[in-house]
Amino acid sequence: MIEVQTRQRKVRFDLALFRQRAGLVSRFTNVDDKEVACTLVSDPAIHELNRDYRGKDKPTDVLSFAQNEGEFADLNPDVLGDVIISVETAERQREERTLLDEVTHLLIHGVLHLQGYDHEKDDEAEEMEAEERRVWAAVHSTETGG
Length: 146
Fold this sequence. Notes:
By secondary structure, the protein is an alpha/beta fold. The protein has a single domain, classed as Collagenase (Catalytic Domain), CATH 3.40.390. 49% of the residues lie in helices and 17% in strands. The protein has a 4-stranded mixed beta sheet with strand order 1-2-4-3, sandwiched between helices. The protein is globular, with a radius of gyration of 15 Å. The two termini are 23 Å apart.
């Protein structure tokens, strides 16, 4: 299950509809039996996390922190991890998408990272992008009754 909380107030956003979509993302990424925390933040908050944990001194759109890796990975196998999304960055980069669609895409991307998907190599990127498209299509189809 994906639990959504917001720590930003700058960008207006349909949080109730996003929570519904998070439920669909949970279902279509098969994490219903896991715990995922999604926190919506501002650029300064994600900038700090990106600097402290990735060594990149700038805001980013999404960060994932897996709890099922490392020394204490087996402590609670039901906790998959955290997805942190900057709504401000999502608003700036969304292009033709609505803000809701952009943030949903970032959630999908973050959850897939928690599941071990990556995009460092071309073949990994292709696999991850295909899975992102599959999940997005399932979410969209469910919403439109298709």
